[in-house]
Write a structure and sequence with these properties.
single chain, 6-stranded parallel sheet, binds 6-O-phosphono-alpha-D-glucopyranose, alpha/beta, binds magnesium ion
Length: 240
Amino acid sequence: MTVSVNHESIDILKSRNEAIDFHCKKGVRKMFKGIIFDLDGVICFTDMYHYKAWKQMADSIGVYFDETINNRLRGVSRMASLEIILERSEKTYTQEEKEALATKKNEIYVELLKQMSTADLSEEVKNTLDALRAKGCKLAIGSSSKNTKLILTQIGLRDYFDAISDGNNITHSKPDPEVFLKGAEFLGLDPKDCLVVEDAEAGIDAAVAGGFASAGIGEASKHPQVTYPINTFSDLLKIQ
Ligand code: G6P
Ligand code: MG
């Protein structure tokens, strides 16, 4: 018997099998009701702006700062980031002085964020978000940043998500799971029904601590406890 199959259907079958393999390897075969996305480094890239702003602040007080130190700040709150930078300082700062330094950095950072636009949202990210939503998934943001809404506005996603949990509604930053637990609560979902998408190790630690499955991209894909290591954002369509 001759079966005629065109290339398109072979591709569809192939990607479906890959998706199933993906789930089987992890011993998990489920659909998530909600997905909670970290913002910086997952939906868009603000690393360079954080770096420039921290560098300017550090230079102003004569403290050494470079991109390797900047990498340690991923997923870490503003004040905790400052503490990491001040590890290199000989001077001890009062709480008030620290707050002034963090405010100074944020003023520079916010000014730089004004350069962001819808061009900073990739087609891949937008199309993948749309496809996940079309599958009936609720979508939320779970970010430590207090500038989340500003960044979402700049890239044209201010009203896109079903819920936003950010640095303004938490008292403990990642690796504490609070930001994701609040995100799940805002969606009206149980953590076990949500997938967390992260690029930072502290974010995967937070997902694990909160009882969430996780998809890790970039450095987070190497985390020993990540549920789904992924290479690129659209790989999420192989999971869900
Ligand atoms: C994200 C970034 C961190 C940043 C934190 C706080 O998690 O990955 O690098 O320190 O947000 O950002 P904020 O905008 O509140 O200073
Ligand atoms: Mg991140």
